Predict the structure.
Amino acid sequence: MIVARIAIGLLGLALALPALALDFPILSGRVVDEAGILNAATRAALTQKLADFEAKTTDQLVVVTLKSLQGTSIEDFGYQLGRHWQIGQKGKNNGALLIVVPSERQVRIEVGYGLEGTLTDAVSRLIIENSLLPRFRANDFPGGIARAVDDIISVLSGDAAEWKQRAAKRPEPQSGWSPFLILVLMFQGYVVVYIIVGSILGARKKRRWSDDFTWSPGSGAEWLPTTTSGADSSGSSGGGFSGDSGFSGGGGSFGGGGASGRW
């Protein structure tokens, strides 16, 4: 867990930079089925359940299936996607994502800052291991997703104490990494971030002296203007349920809380 938090912290530093941008799907509703694994009836049922849940609690929960992770980790993709979509209410940061990537056999529950004390990493892991992975291994994606959504809603609707007790009975996975190795990884990570920052700042300085903001011929690179996180709607269209087209994030943010699993 310590190693995961360190890695997420380093990724957070890199995220503060204008981007190695990922191609995020458009937030077309509370269910964004980019991978195309849910039928219309399932999407409609999930959408209604999530809308009712938000109306009662103001918490926002979004289900998203992805075609791929575009070469990054599901942890990195997950919290960047949560910030890009701004799931959860501004100030409350009460958003969560259920992310499924069938092509890479990975799943994640991404938790906004404001819900980390309720939908803890341990509880998220319990839901993944008990509700999602067994059904996914049997190729029952709709069943696994529906069950996980019910469990997440149960946790956030007042049953968190019971879920935490159940999660506490499961042993925490041990990384087995020595403190020395952790320090080495931290040092290497900061060096990488320092190099990236230096490269980008150097490139910005050069651009100030260029009238048309273009690179010299033969450089093999092309500069593209950056956009703000909340306003950027580029990316693949996804497969979201059209009946929820009025849905949007409320300005929430994420810091890497949650849990992941593979099947």
Residues 15-19, 205-242 have pLDDT under 50 and may be disordered. The CA atoms of residues 14 and 130 lie 33 Å apart.
